[in-house]
């Protein structure tokens, strides 16, 4: 009871807070759509949505006006293919719901059943400007990891925007190990599963399945949505030849809606990826031949794929690679434009790679990751160039709701700003 | 060329070696073992600086690594050594190449105090996984240099993207006492000896906390707990002291190493996350009579900045790694800044083949986190977090880590402020030899492993 009263007094009650109408004026605005930043611009948010953006936009009368002089504004960052909300401490197994090695199910697994809005990693990411994410499961004992969800990071209980948004399958070296020891086995497992799913989907109600069944009914039902293209299939793959193998799946399963995840050697087959119209989510700064399927790794991968016409998002923030570090990855791609022979991105393209493009790949094009009329009121006010190392969010709004700064990290920071224990131990400093 | 201290040491070693041959001819086996200890250091460095040209870097902003900043500065180096660092009016001797650094920045070569390049190289396959002798909780007898694969492509990436000229390779942290670390010059070489930093002291890698207790506890073996960790450590030190006081008739490689620590010849680099545990380790060091040089991965160092300062121990840390294991749950991005505020020694380290390419960026992030809570650490001091402070904590602060006359000419010319995400090394010199030049495709090393394979020599 006392705690509840305290929570209300502190304004931290876990009840839904209504969106503010506000305008940020005279800021440098990166809209996230790939264009260059606009100086002295205004962003207007009303009823949780972006209303207008631009230099000629005026703040409507009666709206709260925030002076953005000297500051930058961007859409909230969209973190594609992350494990946010699935673990508290990665190495503490009990707190980790990213994979299920001993489950009899795989494709049917649904991360929406585990996502925790109170995870510290969600709070820390939110403070870093991340407002939306696609959360993917990791593989257990199968090449199929299960179904991922799209979430928002707003501080309320309603975390899931779209459950079962995609299925994740792992091919390449780790897919080969998971399916019995070779890429041959992985492709056989994948095609067999999709065929079984197609057969199950085509059965009349109540009819028995044929023999030679490897998938549980639940897994087959999950994959039926992949076959008919109503659920996107994310494919973890790195090597150029493996990417070609994925693109070739469309010959047998023409309605597959594919997204490549990883694609470290994507630049070697960029025209083919572009021609297939398949987008890519990748982690761009990996430039080492960490495995034999990434021998051609280079930081120029993103720039070269983009140049060839591939839609590329920066993502795959998992484990120690925190989603709040997305701007650093993006900024590094801008840095490449100054290196002879390298391929990078313009500032606008780099911002798009961590905002609008991952939103589009996740099925939320025009609705998130962009400051455009009608899009969600996800706004980040930064104390400087958002891609620069010295910058950080000053304020973060999600759906027009200003978000609190109250993570475990923030509280530790406040407690240990000094080490003064003259009167009482640090345990009383809260 | 002036005779360098390491050359003197090498000559001294050769003389002693000759003496050793004569005495051992008539000696018995045990005596031979005993005397072998006083001979030249085995596996000694064969590193030789590559030729460079007398060079004057002019017009750039210079961070000297010791906190100093000179706008429109001049850096002169010749014969592998820094000759002078000064303002625009510093006279440039005849015969020097001028490199225009207008709009650019100069720092000492970047130094990583915590790397596993070579012992956990790329490709990271089992056949090359040589970083952790997890067969016993204490393995002071193993030396990381015996595992290093000089062809690891990670070395070249660290050079060209991170400006890393010196790095310490540590054995992994599964053991309480993991073995000897080795300090390397980041130069391509056919042998590890050809990379060994001349005259660098050895370090001993130790680990406290979760790793050793997890590895051995899972095998139902001591240590299974943190108290087990301390018990095994303390007994090892007690046994080492007994050995040290003995006649060394039976040579023990592990105890040789521990003896080196007790004598102050070998530094201690201690993997330790939690504040309370670091305090316990400091007490153990007092009890046993050794010194901890640096705590690595010290994510909770900010809770005991006063204690670390009082004990003259560096904290080698990441900018903001967080929450991946229980002992990292209280990590905060303000760690480095709060330590600096206490006057404690900060080193930014990588422990990562990707992170080592961006130590400057990690330091900038840590600086920015501090600035937001009102702890404003100047840029020059922040550059010291990944140059001089690292060198100091590796025992080579007298030779490298800063741009001062007489020091090794390990120098990076950055194409912008190294604390900006938009900047990269443009040229990197090691002992005055130009080993990377962004404008010269041939002035970029490609490891044997990469030859003829996809992506060979590509811009990385």
Descriptive account of the structure:
Chain B: Residues 341-432 form the Amidohydrolase-related domain. Chain B: Residues 29-50, 437-460 are annotated as: Disordered. Chain B: This is Amidohydrolase. The complex is a heterodimer of chains A (430) and B (460). Chain A has 430 residues and is an alpha/beta fold. Helices cover 26% and strands 21% of the residues of chain A. Chain A is built from 13 helices and 16 strands. Chain A has helices at residues 2-9, 120-127, 172-178, 183-202, 217-227, 240-247, 249-252, 270-276, 301-307, 326-335, 347-352, 356-361, 408-415; strands at 22-29, 38-46, 49-54, 64-67, 72-75, 77-82, 130-135, 144-152, 160-170, 232-237, 258-262, 280-282, 312-314, 379-382, 393-398, 401-402. In chain A, strands 1, 2, 3, 4, 5, 14, 15 and 16 form an 8-stranded mixed sheet that branches. In chain A, helix 4 (183-202) packs across helix 5. The longest helix of chain A has 20 residues, at 183-202. The radius of gyration of chain A is 23 Å and the shape is globular. The two termini of chain A are 20 Å apart. Chain B has 460 residues and is α/β, with parallel strands linked by helices. Chain B has a domain at 109-413: TIM Barrel. Chain B contains 12 helices and 16 strands. Chain B has helices at 5-24, 29-36, 153-162, 210-217, 226-245, 253-262, 275-288, 305-310, 335-342, 359-372, 379-385, 388-393, and strands at 55-63, 69-78, 81-86, 97-100, 105-108, 110-115, 164-169, 177-185, 203-207, 267-271, 294-296, 314-317, 346-348, 411-414, 425-430, 433-437. In chain B, a hairpin with a 5-residue loop joins strand 1 and strand 2 (69-78). In chain B, helix 9 crosses helix 10. The two termini of chain B are 36 Å apart. The model of chain B is unreliable at 1-36 (pLDDT under 50).
